[in-house]
Amino acid sequence: MGLQEIQKKIKDAFEVFDHESNDTVDVREIGTIIRSLGCCPSEGELHDLIAEVEEEEPTGYIRLEKFLPMMVKVLLERRYRPIPEDLLLQAFEVLDAAKEGFLTKEELMKYMTEEGEPFTQEEMEEMLSAALDPETNTIQYRDYLAMMVIDEN
Amino acid sequence: MGCNSSIQYEDRKSEKGMKAAVLIQNWYRCYKARLELRRLQAMNIFESIEYADEQDQLQLANFFSFMLENYTPNNKETSESLSQLFINTRKRKLDPETFIRNINVPDTYYGPRLKFPLTFSDVILLIDAFKENQILHARYVLQLLQEVKKVLQQLPNIVPVSSTVSKELTVCGDIHGKLDDLFLIFYKNGLPSGNNRYIFNGDFVDRGQNSMEVLMVLFSFLLVYPNDVYLNRGNHEDYLMNMRYGFTKEIMQKYKEHGGKILRSLEDVYTWLPIGTIIDEKILVIHGGISENTDLNILKQIKRNKMKSVLMPPITCSRIDLKHGHHDLPLSSISAIDQLSKIEWDQMVNILWSDPRSKKGCHPNTSRGGGCYFGPDVTNNILTKFALKMIIRSHECKPEGYDVCHDGKIVTVFSASNYYEEGSNRGAYIKLSQDNIPRFFQYQSNHLTQGKTLHERVDIVESAAFKILGERMISQKSSLIKAFQKYDPNNTGKISVSDWAKAAEEVLELSLPWLSLCPRLVKVIENGYVLYKMGFKDMPIVKAPQVAKSGMVETLVRYRSDLKIIFNIIDKDQSGLISMEEFRAMWKLFSSHYNIDIEDAYVDQLANSMDLNKDGSIDFNEFLTAFDVVHRLDRNSIKSQN
């Protein structure tokens, strides 16, 4: 993709969240914007990116002027690449201590809301709504991942 | 040593677990972000197209003026019917009260039988009936409308409200026929009563399936609690808007025999709705917004019932007299008495149609084609000038159901959840406490999206958005192809994605992220090129009659809503038929005004094919339905623009 096209793509995503049409977005939406552009920074990495583009005296808003060059670099350098499917599967397998091929609802909830970069209540509920098999009350993670891959394409 | 290594092992294990958790959380958040972007983009599409539609609607107003100046029909009757649109001197054979009383309600009718004056229990009966999907008999509808008109006529243009400690005051925004949302508000916030006052800020009807029921409920509460329920006029409380946006259709479907009378009664009742409310002389509640010229003193004085429809702007007599000097047209009898002055007209249109924006100043509202965009400086000036603290308005759909801008001085409240599609947005209402600080309450009537995952919900919103975008595109197909070809001088059949995006924006005049939309709408081949002649993905089809040429088909698809309105107006006895001559004369005007380049012979051919009875009249509803757009994925339905 040429530079111009990358810039347009970033601007388009930014615009969606620019509710005032004044080339600024609420800092709380930056994570969503960056992720929607195909990058997968962790919360910690996101924090650092925001620090790069924030004003000297943080206003709660991020300007396109500052965001654009940073984001172009991120995309050109192919940083924060999305996680490949097999790695994801391995991650689930790590959590599956009993190696049974599934996680119980409690197990998943514990990890997601207590470990790593914890989910909010809302995020947890949303994930469960698609991932939980209501009959067994478990997360059949292989099936779940397979479904997600199809959904995304 | 043994202990140490087992601790180390535990540490490594929990570290692995933590890393795995982070990975999964990270992945999930990225997935969610992509869905959120798609959802917001879909909303953007809906909004752009909705406003573009409104713009078309307002352009129709220009056409009517043009029509009046240039329409030279051969018979006096037709010219009279045209002028009657503007004078509204329909003569009734019976006086309305007698007429209504003579409408018979059959014994087989099990719905509510209202007695006037209405009581609270009548309203409860009505609500229960509507929950059972019953339809209120036309006789009661007409009686109710009659009574409501009497109440409304007593009210000033801007109704003053004083907040008191003992009484709660709630402000609701656009409802647009969503009875579920109205009931949800009543459930959460209580029914209107002496102690529980409500202001409904316009746009009660159109788009939703239960505009009639919403209106009946609101009107009956108004009758029972005239001092505690306030209804402001919105831009959809307009009989011509209703023709395009669905309420007229709903009425004709639910009330086959008396639908026409109900429509005429509504036409009138709408004009008596107050323009706004003012709370404690500090908070102005109006449907749309303001302009730099907004003057409450003018607004308080005008005869608000003279504004029949935003599509009927005031016409000046002298211009017409000159043109038709030798005709004995009753148009010359249109005097200043029956119309608003241009200044008064503009004041009202701005109140009903304007939108706040962050850009300073006052600019024409190009998305909607009427009213203006007003900046924070305009807000400050008007608030200062009239000693106001805040303006509460509606008119724009907001994802959270409400929005605050201009430094807290402009508050938007929108009460129709899932407005564009299931899952598109929340609805909200405002409660004002004694200190007049607004508190916001949100909800989403999720009766159909319950049990659907986030992904499914976004899919629903998105596919609906793409459907209507597709409709727009096929109605401009030839202009689009021409524009694409400009970027393909060697006629290779392909252009780059960015050229495609430029052309699409130019032709469709919708400012959308065309670059990202491109792969969803057309087939993109390697190297980022588009085979533009191959047509659009999941392209909707039009089952037009064989005799119609493709250019004509496109035009009729694009303008069918406008034509429907025009035909309805010409058809004064609402028989559904217009004469061939009327059709031809009107088409000539329409095509010259809108610069449509289609040979008269084709139009004739088409009209003749539509004259099924060979009696010289055209059933225009049938005619227009032929140009409705069908989506391949809709199996049995014909999706019309309503």
TrEMBL record, chain A:
Single Gene Ontology MF annotation: calcium ion binding
A GO CC term assigned to this protein in UniProt: sperm principal piece
Listed name of the protein: EF-hand domain-containing protein
Any single Pfam family the record assigns to this protein: EF-hand_7
EF-hand domain boundaries: 5-40, 83-118
Keywords tagged on the record: Repeat
From TrEMBL, chain B:
One GO BP annotation of this record: detection of stimulus involved in sensory perception
Enzyme class: hydrolase
GO molecular function list: calcium ion binding; iron ion binding; manganese ion binding; protein serine/threonine phosphatase activity
Pfam family, one: Metallophos
Domain EF-hand as annotated: residue spans: 475-510, 558-593, 598-633
Enzyme Commission code(s) on record: 3.1.3.16
Keyword Manganese (UniProt): yes
Family that this chain belongs to: Belongs to the PPP phosphatase family.
Protein name: Serine/threonine-protein phosphatase with EF-hands
Originating organism: Vombatus ursinus (Common wombat)
